[in-house]
């Protein structure tokens, strides 16, 4: 039974997640409605300011017996959604393991550690080992920009930077090139280097990377390890905490305040 305030919602606009009643507004996706109601569905390529992309598949849920992406599926009256089940979480762990071995995610040496959504999700889903053989990729590292560092070895191809640059900044600094396993993010500039692009440090595209692929220079350890966003409370707990206080969820904010540990969830 939901403890979310459902007054003001048309009772027809309700569905369930793991047996809990969730209100939704017409047009909302399952993921949007879930997050607003304080139910965490794991996700990596979703951002509240951007259109759904449906590529990472972390948000896969079972809807009336069939699997689908919660970030692209519309919420409809009476849907019965399964989210926090052993089978779905096993599948999510495998997807995470594949992301970890496919890139260069040495968490202890990465300055995004503690603020990284990939790492936070691995903790949330209790992933204890990468399981698959590492690829050890050798991709572009571009340190040419005065304020931004780009390390595509840590890119998880969520395309958040591509979408943010196009749809929020109106600059198209980042684009996708290549096909299938050979596709990667490239920089749109005469030289292909970030320093010759239109990117500035305050662009949404410069803030939005959920992992350590796009980083701001000179601030890496300004928030010490131990005081970072996900150091004490899991990402799932934090999303639920924010939703219940009607605080907009911007999960990739580097300077986001830490949440109190396990407060009334
Ligand atoms: S650089 Fe970051 S934001 Fe861009 S696609 Fe890769 S992981 Fe996503
Ligand atoms: S958040 Fe739904 S597919 Fe990535």
Task: Summarize the entry for a quick read.
By secondary structure, this protein is an alpha+beta fold. Helices cover 21% and strands 14% of the residues. The chain is globular.
Quote the distance from N terminus to C terminus: 14 Å
Summed over residues and divided by their number, the pLDDT gives a mean of 88
Measured on Cα atoms, how large is the radius of gyration? 19 Å
Global structural class: alpha+beta
Q: Overall 3D geometry?
A: globular
Oligomer: single chain
Biggest sheet, in brief? 5 strands, mixed
Give the ligands present. iron/sulfur cluster, FE2/S2 (inorganic) cluster
Along the chain, the helix and strand elements come as EEHEEEHHEEHEEHEH
| Strand tally | 10
* Strands side by side in the biggest sheet: 2-1-5-3-4
Beta-strand fraction estimate: 5-15%
Low-confidence stretches: 1-5, 252-265
Describe what you observe in this structure.
21% of the residues lie in helices and 14% in strands. The protein has helices at residues 30-36, 86-102, 117-124, 160-169, 204-207, 235-244; strands at residues 14-17, 20-23, 60-63, 66-69, 80-82, 141-142, 148-151, 174-177, 184-187, 214-216. The strands form three sheets. The protein has a five-stranded mixed beta sheet with strand order 2-1-5-3-4, with no helix packed on it. Strands 6-7-10 form a three-stranded antiparallel beta sheet, with no helix packed on it. The chain has a two-stranded antiparallel sheet with strand order 8-9. The radius of gyration is 19 Å and the shape is globular. It starts with 13 loop residues before the first strand and ends in a 21-residue tail after the last helix. It binds iron/sulfur cluster and FE2/S2 (inorganic) cluster. Iron/sulfur cluster binds at residues 155-161, 185, 208-209, 211, 213-214.
